[in-house]
Amino acid sequence: MVGSVSFFFGGVINAAAQNIAMLIIGRILLGVGIGFGNQAVPLYLSEIAPYKIRGAVNQLFQLTTCLGILVADVVNYFTEKIHPWGWRLSLGLAVVPATLIFVGGFFLPETPNSLVEQGRLDEARKILEKVRGTPKVDAEFEDLKEASEAARAVKNPFRNLLKPRNRPQLIIGALGIPAFQQLTGQNSILFYAPVIFQSLGFGSGASLYASIITGSMLVVGALVSMSVVDRLGRRFLFIEAGIQMIGSMIIVTVTLALKFGHGETLSKGVAALLVVMICLFVVAFGWSWGPLGWLVPSELFPLEMRSAGQSVVVCVNLFFTAAIAQCFLAALCHLRYGVFILFAGLILIMSIFIILLLPETKQVPIEEISQLFEKHWYWKHIVSKDVELVQRHQKQQQQEAKTAAAV
């Protein structure tokens, strides 16, 4: 709700802008609003969803984001025809989703995890029973209370991120995935889709129309991801999409090298091929790095670090978003079609990163995901160096031995 207020005033200032300074201030306020939303929504969905469908529920965030991008593309297509104030209407319409978010916030319940952390146990159990649709939530409620007790013992969650037992979450969830999500080049393609398509020979109106097509591909990708992520798993979608995205970028690079390299203009057939390849790239991102870039980090962190970890995720993601947005046009001018092979190389690196370092988290209760790293071929050697974790396991083993002896 706080973010929606910032978003609202950002839209108002941009719509009324009389100079560049007002546009910058409005854009900053919009960015602050986006930061609040990116911090809160993935965590909320991960905590409120049953673990068996956590992936699909969490990806509602990406689906609605993609729908928002598509709506923005359609709005831009029509407002571009309104002179001279169409751009003000386009920017000012940001107040509509901001208002919906603010009003909707009054009707959202707190998550059981949050209520347990606040010591409101009765409310937490009622909410848990309500969202699960059954009063049989004893085991899950006990897990929440145990996780909350562990969270209270942590005095500095940001410092706790650096401990060996949390190293996998830090490297994969807080740093690797949010950075790699932007290094796919997807947002650069979306930011500058009109410029790219104009450079491929489309007119200004046609380039905006092509942007609507890519936005539609994002929605299709998000829908596919929602339907299969809890069956096929996160790793499968990452790896399959990596292959598809690399192939698409290679074809785009080779085609442009053969045509532009000899000073030829693009025929309609070649331009259509390039649009198809870009759409294949976008739809693959739409069912992999787009939604999973938010889902996976939100489910990796244990409760005691979840808020701190997600804040790092958002900061890293937005930092690389801004950096890539600033650098992409310069890279496109200097490298020309070579920029696409650069992205293909980066996607290869991040696909290897996923194959080697990310365990499968599908249908694993969020409170048990940390245990996956204790069995992982690489991370178990890092996690086992954590003294507190070793002591905790020893106490559990002693307690289990006493219980067995008593029986």
From TrEMBL:
It holds the Pfam family Sugar_tr. Its main location: membrane. One of its GO terms (molecular function) is monosaccharide transmembrane transporter activity. GO terms for cellular component: membrane. Residues 1-362 form the Major facilitator superfamily (MFS) profile domain. It is a multi-pass membrane protein. It comes from the Eukaryota. This is Sugar transport protein 14 isoform X2. It comes from Ananas comosus. The gene is LOC109708573.
